[in-house]
TrEMBL record:
Biological source species: Lacibacter luteus
Residue intervals passing through the bilayer: none
CDD domains (UniProt xref): TTHA0252-CPSF-like_MBL-fold
Single Gene Ontology MF annotation: RNA endonuclease activity
Domain Metallo-beta-lactamase, chain residue ranges per copy: 13-249
Pfam family, one: Beta-Casp
Beta-Casp domain boundaries: 254-379
Keyword Hydrolase (UniProt): yes
InterPro entries per the UniProt record, alphabetical: Beta_Casp (IPR022712), MBL (IPR050698), Metallo-B-lactamas (IPR001279), RibonucZ/Hydroxyglut_hydro (IPR036866), RMMBL (IPR011108)
SUPFAM superfamilies named among the record's database cross-references: Metallo-hydrolase/oxidoreductase
Entry keywords, A to Z: Hydrolase
Entry keyword annotation includes Hydrolase: yes
Protein name, per record: MBL fold metallo-hydrolase
Length: 465
């Protein structure tokens, strides 16, 4: 029995973990690398394994850094099913088609540059048609129900509380008469999430593969997120009369922002401005989230009794077409625009930042984790100049951050998630999905809690278990 790591190893994207048992190979997640600078494209094109040799695949949740290479996996030879929850299947469908459109558009732009330099053309990682074909492989399962994956392999999902449909994956794997209990955390949500239920307890495991994005930090809960949002809106739009640009992932973060703005309106504190959601994907994702109210926590269930749409409020407007999006660049402030992606490295928000970054009246508000090499990461690091679409831009816009907004749990949430486990029974605990220095700090914390063999695997590391 072997375990190898081909993504989210000493970095936060590209989740791919490969289990070999009884001569069969099971892939946990198949994520796209994002925000890795010049290395990103090469990392997404080279697997570290042969997709045609994979027998089974399980998907923890829909986010692109966990699902985004599934169409390429199928294109490159994977023939099996993709096991996930019902909501994950729904969200992944719209995310993968959107990702495919971005792949095709990015390659067209890059090939124009290559043509001018007599360089060979690139092909997209996958096309919209590839994405649609991959969706036929999805097989849906309920939480807390064991199902057969293959001979000697059973699996069960528990609610991870990260986004709608997100799951921790639990395996019972039998080889040569011996059974191992393996748990893969996926991404662990928060125990005080404004929309979702808390992560579920789970059975004792022998082997744990665990994310560590915020393994050395605590989220700032001293001031509520709606209050912080209101402060930024008042400063950026009412005082400076500028644009407030909020990069936000289409799934999870956008819905949380809309919910918090709706709360401000219910409290009659929301300034009368235009709140523009510039993302067709966010519009689709929000409708999908609304269709799974059974996954909401008790607080939002109570809100639903008096407010039929907790994501809608006066002044909100969804922008769908490219033409409408481009017209926003000619629209003077004040207004708020929420647009993907959250790391500001791709999508429409990159164009909004490009248009607004050199004007000191404008504000760019980051609301979640940004990989240090991404545009969002560079802005948070205080860069005075950043390159956008190949052109150096001076940073005159104010850069803000709300640290309390994250779908990832902090180290207290992750410790609470682990509290149902007896450390003496855990043979090995692998830390993935985190920056290397953060993982070291989290490793020490886990060892103080009694976990003895805590490993931080590097890319393509393989070990017997």
């Amino acid at each position: 029995m072997k375990l190898s790591f081909h993504g989210a190893a000493r970095c936060v994207t590209g989740s791919k973990h490969l289990l070999t048992v009884n001569g069969k190979k099971l892939l946990l997640d198949c994520g796209l690398f994002q925000g890795m600078g010049k290395d990103t494209d090469a990392m997404n094109r080279h697997w570290g394994f042969d997709p045609s040799t994979i027998d089974y695949m399980i998907l923890s949740h829909a986010h692109i850094d966990h699902s985004g290479l599934i169409p390429k996996l199928c294109k490159d030879g994977y023939q099996g099913k993709i096991h996930c929850t019902d909501a994950t299947a729904s969200l992944t469908a719209v995310l993968l088609e959107d990702s495919a459109e971005i792949q095709e558009d990015d390659v067209k732009y890059e090939n124009k540059r290559r043509a001018a330099m007599n360089m060979p053309y690139l092909q997209p990682l996958y096309t919209v048609e590839d994405a649609k074909k991959a969706l036929d492989r999805f097989e849906q399962h309920e939480y807390s129900t064991w199902f057969k994956v293959g001979d000697g392999i059973e699996a069960m999902f528990t609610d991870a509380g990260h986004i709608i449909g997100s799951a921790c994956v639990h395996l019972k794997v039998t080889e040569n008469g011996k059974t191992k209990r393996i748990t893969f955390s996926g991404d662990i949500g928060r125990y005080r999430d404004v929309i979702l239920k808390s992560p579920q307890e789970f059975p004792q495991a022998d082997i744990i593969i665990m994310e560590s994005t915020y393994g050395n930090s605590l989220h700032d809960n001293a001031v509520s997120t709606p209050d912080q949002l209101l402060q930024w809106i008042e400063k950026a739009c009412l005082q400076k009369k500028g644009k407030l640009i909020v990069p936000a992932f289409s799934v999870g973060r956008t819905q949380e922002l809309l919910y918090d703005l709706n709360q401000l309106e219910l409290e009659r504190r929301l300034p009368e401005l235009e709140y523009i959601v510039d993302s067709p994907l966010s519009m689709e994702a929000t409708q999908i989230v609304k269709s799974y109210p059974e996954y909401f926590n008790k607080r939002i269930q109570k809100v639903l009794q008096s407010d039929s749409d907790p994501f809608g409020f006066k002044g909100v407007r969804f922008v769908k077409t490219v033409e409408e999006s481009k017209l926003l660049n000619f629209k003077s402030g004040p207004y708020v625009v929420i647009s993907a992606s959250g790391m500001a490295d791709a999508g429409r928000v990159k164009h909004h930042i490009n248009n607004a970054i050199e004007n000191s009246r404008n504000t760019i508000l980051l609301t979640g984790y940004c990989e240090p090499r991404s545009l969002g990461g560079k802005l948070l690091a205080g860069r005075k100049e950043v390159k956008i679409f190949g052109v150096e831009k001076e940073v005159h816009a104010e850069i803000g951050q709300i640290r309390s907004m994250s779908a990832h749990g902090d180290y207290e949430d992750m410790s609470q998630w682990l509290a149902c486990q007896d450390p003496k029974e855990v043979e090995k605990l692998f830390i993935v999905h985190g920056e290397y220095d953060v993982q070291h700090a989290f490793q020490q914390r886990l060892m103080r809690k009694g976990f003895t063999d805590v490993i931080i695997p590097e890319m393509h590391f393989e070990i017997g278990i």
